[in-house]
Amino acid sequence: MSHSRSVVVITGASAGHGRAVARAFARRGADIGLLARGRDGLEAARREIESLGGRAIAVPVDVADPQQLEAAADLVEREFGPITVWVNNAMASVFAPVMRTRPEEIKRATEVTYLGAVYGTMTALRRMVPRDRGTIIEVGSVQAYRGMPLQAAYCAAKQALRSFTESVRTELLHDKSHVRVAMVRMPAMNTPQFVWTRNRMSHKVRPAPPLYQPEVGAEAVVWAADHDRREIEVGVSTVLARLVNKLLPAAVDRYLARTGYRMQQTEEFVDPDQPDNLWKPVEGDHGVYGPFNEKAATRSPGMWTTRHRGIMLAAVGMGALAALSLAARRLPGRLPGPGRAGLRGRLATPMPGRRSVWGT
Ligand SMILES: NC(=O)c1ccc[n+]([C@@H]2O[C@H](COP(=O)([O-])OP(=O)(O)OC[C@H]3O[C@@H](n4cnc5c(N)ncnc54)[C@H](OP(=O)(O)O)[C@@H]3O)[C@@H](O)[C@H]2O)c1
User: Fold this and answer.
1) 302 CA distance to ligand 1 middle (Å)
2) How far apart are CA 155 and CA 140, in angstroms?
């Protein structure tokens, strides 16, 4: 699909990963609806998109309100035409143990991170399904598969979004719709999240390594819009974490209990005047990056394997064939009696009273 005439809506586009996604689509000449709450960030993002050759409108929206999303989608379509790609990216979180989190904070993080994506998906489906075209991209996380300490509300929201996405996808398949829904699972990225997330701990928040710059995730989102894949892993860490958790969940519990608090906090104390973005946006333009530029990688080998899945599968297939042919060559020496032809002959010989596997 060419993006020369695509109309892309991105939630959480005023800062961080969403803003990087907006830049990436702008470089493809897309028309973009930038959705978030903070006007300073939205306006700065709009100017950036225009300087990159795209067209954009900034729409102040709280994704926890489905009516605001509906109105925003109408506005984007009036300005640019039918929406072709919708990216659910906005998030809010509370960094604290559950025992020190208030019920209304969990509710709000869930309303933004989970329900915001649900409402966004429904808003997009209402437009895309009757036209039988369009792609919805859910920005996921490895934490959709593994809960971390101090991030219960966020991890639960991402887990819920994963199930919701699977249900929607099966319904679209059932209806033989050409509308697609894909999930792009992100590793840790260097975004303002680690500065403005509500934090009840004494020390500043940091991402668990390995860490990537948001452009790595953004590139994967643009790639997901072009390719028919149900899930895309960005970074080998997301694959490994999922695998290890599947095989050894209790060991991962103990590992995270021992290391998870330290791993996610810096040595620096929290600034008591630092505002958070749970209920309202933090004033000013916060751009794409968080404070960890020197630690963040700009490329992901995991994304290379995703892009070149054909080559990887061919390499694995050729390796398997080579191993099989080596084993077959060594087999006759090990077996008493006839060689390879004889082996097939032996397999073909029916047991007394039975038909053989070759149907004779
Ligand atoms: N950074 C990571 O390590 C990481 C790892 C895995 C997955 N992800 C995923 O990547 C996505 C972006 O994360 P990020 O790190 O870029 O977050 P971020 O830096 O905190 O940016 C969040 C964005 O969401 C917007 N937002 C927050 N509350 C909103 C609301 N109620 N309504 C509308 N917009 C709202 C913010 O803008 P306003 O405040 O102006 O509204 C901002 O544009 C999320 O889905 C996250 O789960 C991130």
Assistant:
1) 22
2) 10
